[in-house]
Amino acid sequence: MTAVSTSASGFVGDIKSFPVPLTELDRLRSSGKTAVIIGAGPGGLMAALTIKEAGYENVIVLEKRTSFTRNNIVNLHPEARHIFKRLNILDRFLARASLIVDHRNHIFLDGKALFDFRDQGTDVETNADHSFEASDVLNGFRNETAFSISLADLQDFLALVACERGITIVRGADATVSEADDGLYSVRANMLGSSLFLLVEQPDVVVVAEGASGALCRQLGGGYRETASLWPEECWVFGNYPCRVNYAYSHLLFEFSGGWDDLTISNCIFLPQRQEVNVAVTVKRADLTQGEIRDRIAEQARKILRISGAEPTSDRVTWHSHHVVRIVPKSAERCYFGKNVVLLGDAMGANSPVAALGGTLSTSAYSYAIRHLIQDLELLPAEDALAAYGRRARSYVTRWHNKVNEVRSTLERDIRMRGQATVRAAGDTRYQMGGEA
Predict the structure, then answer these.
(1) Residue 276 sits in which domain range?
(2) pTM (2 d.p.)
(3) Does residue 414 form part of some domain?
(4) Rounded to whole angstroms, how far apart are CA atoms 185 and 178?
(5) DSSP string, 328-383
(6) What is the mean pLDDT of the chain?
(7) How far, in Å, CA of 181 to CA of 186, rounded?
(8) How does pLDDT run across 249-274, given as a tens digit for each residue?
(9) Under a CB-based contact definition with an 8 Å cutoff, are residues 167 and 52 in contact?
(10) What is the pLDDT of residue 26?
(11) Alpha-carbon torsion 76, 171, 236, 224, what sign?
């Protein structure tokens, strides 16, 4: 039996933006299967919903923050629909997200338009039983993202659904783990700003979904191997700029000046619900001030508005990231520990805003992997079930890193062919200069 205890009842927190929901601990049962998820990002919350659907009586999400504040946009590929359909939340998600119906791409060389193309995407039939294997990671660069939503909106949506379904969410919880002689880990969460704590002794499953920058993977004895990004020192900033827009669509702007190392990418998503364009743009320096970040977002937003013909409604940035985000693709050296702990999402690696693969993996692939883990734990010894999960989850990261290298090699070659009339786009599709495929 899993023992759950607290040093006092109730928790309090300073809630801003979207508050992390707080549920009462008396929901927990004294018996039944228990899962603890550390981290209330999209991956952690999807894992919680998946495990609850699988029949676990006690599902607890521990989140260090007290509010969801990440306003940068995440794009999801059509695969996310399959998982949302299986969890019976697709319609509610569609009412919250922006549906991208058009993808436009522009290639500039030395300040001049080389060519552009439009990708209307491909209809994908929604199938609740759809599987997600390593080969599906190829879709991460196919330029057919289906939905856009801010991370804060997505987290808020998933957290509200989780609470409705009896999942316990504890905010302001700084979690640590400890291993017993039998190889089972327990979880203790200290409540930030107080002497309260939550102890969950030897739950059936512990899912570490706190991201690659978290400390738990290293506390467990794991580590990370860095792999090549799209280019050295890949850095991004994010922001929103006001404009008049009637429907959601995306613009991807590639600007080359002199060679591969001078590539600038601007991933722009037009958001009708906000009447804004969200801009994610690469920068050459990691030490930009907030003023420089704001100016960079405004510069790229005005450029993409001119290209698209959209009308700005103001000349000020409404929101921007406070610091430059350095992208360092990582691969966890180990993705399971003891007999009951697994890593998930960015805690395993594979992060890049270029194709929003992180959002797709978190909302699709890792949910699929967790569902298989729960099934395997019923049929196999714990060590075998965890090893099978490790192979499946690691294959997503490996395939992603391999695809990054393929795309880098393709683009490098095509930039060297700048005088040629044909430029190969990511993947196997060729686009002719001045026209569509």
Answers:
(1) 73-149+229-327+422-432
(2) 0.85
(3) no
(4) 5
(5) --EEES-SEETTTEEE-GGGTB---TTTTHHHHIIIIIHHHHHHHHHHHHHHS-HH
(6) 80
(7) 11
(8) 888 888 887 666 678 889 888 988 88
(9) yes
(10) 54
(11) negative
